[in-house]
């Protein structure tokens, strides 16, 4: 068994504060937070670092506001575990709507749970506190030290200066895979006919008379708004905030590489411009919205896709569509392939069959060439098309839970590397914890 010092407070005399921890989770989006909670509940000492002062990533800072796709089209549940616990805890705060089916902007039917993004921050705080995770907020990756196949140290830039963290296992859940980038890991390329999915500036608008809005021909209005140049895409997709008469709108479209600092900054500005234009269109042209005003922007543009790591297995769209049954499946999903194009008003969406669910293999969480690193969330090893399905928050949370449990097994001596974790034991532990694998 690997011997590791506990997560310790640094000595004030050292120039860089140094922490030792079993598991370091880098990035506190929904995937990273579930990974941290799962690892801590499994007995590991866990540190969770996050660049913002709150957790959630796209789910809070990006204000996505609805967890999509818990079930197959015919209503078989395929995601539960910690993801369901998040919803249960939101309900205690009165901040999650009922599980429901709704019609997407594409005209397809989908299931979801809408929630209040601000309250999700509290729920994630509660979960990490209850699990005994040590949070390091307002901490951005500065650099990573690698020795051969192991990451031995990550340094973070914080308000109190540089902090060095020495983990037994690192989980990169930064969405953009910033830690792995600095460790010189390998990443997957886009194919010639592919482009990164665009980012979106979510915005909150209200009050809305939702009965009047739901009775309107939203698709025709959205098409009109797009043709008039008021909307950047032909959609008026909205999730109702359970706390108010407001809705969070997903309308803007920003074709950028969000790992390019200059492009990201420009997208924040252009995203607010597009949101303002859409809010004006809502107020003047959409039933139920005449009394509404733009109330808030997301803290940052929501980012659908950036880097995807090269893992031991690259999950493909063909495998999801077959679907292939994996011996090392650690999560399941039923969200269809949903590609927002970088330009133009339409999106590519292929609905799945009635009882169609797919699986995610553990090997897609294991980056090639590294023994003590796992990935979770939207940066896992999957093709561009496969990621367009598995990127949703339900599946990101399920994958995060699996990564956390696997990391705990490694630091407890059940594998000398992430690659030889006893997968049957990992799967059994996930099932015991209420996760679904098929
Ligand atoms: C506009 C939009 C609409 C969407 N709609 C839906 C939907 O309706 N339903 C659904 O279920 N899913 C939806 N998704 C997908 C889903 O929101 C994301 O794929 C999912 O939230 C990804 O979670 P994650 O934890 O992997 O990554 P992220 O949410 O990106 O989290 C990464 C975390 O790492 C932190 N971080 C990043 N870099 C660093 C660094 N260098 N140092 C420290 N911390 C760092 C970030 O601040 C963040 O907290 C949507 C996404 C977008 C963008």
TrEMBL record:
<keyword id="KW-0004">4Fe-4S</keyword>
<keyword id="KW-0411">Iron-sulfur</keyword>
<dbReference type="GO" id="GO:0016491">
    <property type="term" value="F:oxidoreductase activity"/>
</dbReference>
<keyword id="KW-0408">Iron</keyword>
<keyword id="KW-0479">Metal-binding</keyword>
<dbReference type="InterPro" id="IPR036188">
    <property type="entry name" value="FAD/NAD-bd_sf"/>
</dbReference>
<keyword id="KW-0560">Oxidoreductase</keyword>
<dbReference type="Pfam" id="PF12831">
    <property type="entry name" value="FAD_oxidored"/>
</dbReference>
<protein>
    <submittedName>
        <fullName>FAD-dependent oxidoreductase</fullName>
    </submittedName>
</protein>
<dbReference type="GO" id="GO:0046872">
    <property type="term" value="F:metal ion binding"/>
</dbReference>
<dbReference type="InterPro" id="IPR039650">
    <property type="entry name" value="HdrA-like"/>
</dbReference>
<dbReference type="GO" id="GO:0051539">
    <property type="term" value="F:4 iron, 4 sulfur cluster binding"/>
</dbReference>
